[in-house]
Amino acid sequence: MFKKIKIVSQLILLLLLNFKNHICNLRVYFTYELLSLYFYVFTIINMIIFS
Question: Which domain of life is it from (predicted)?
Answer without folding.
Answer: Bacteria
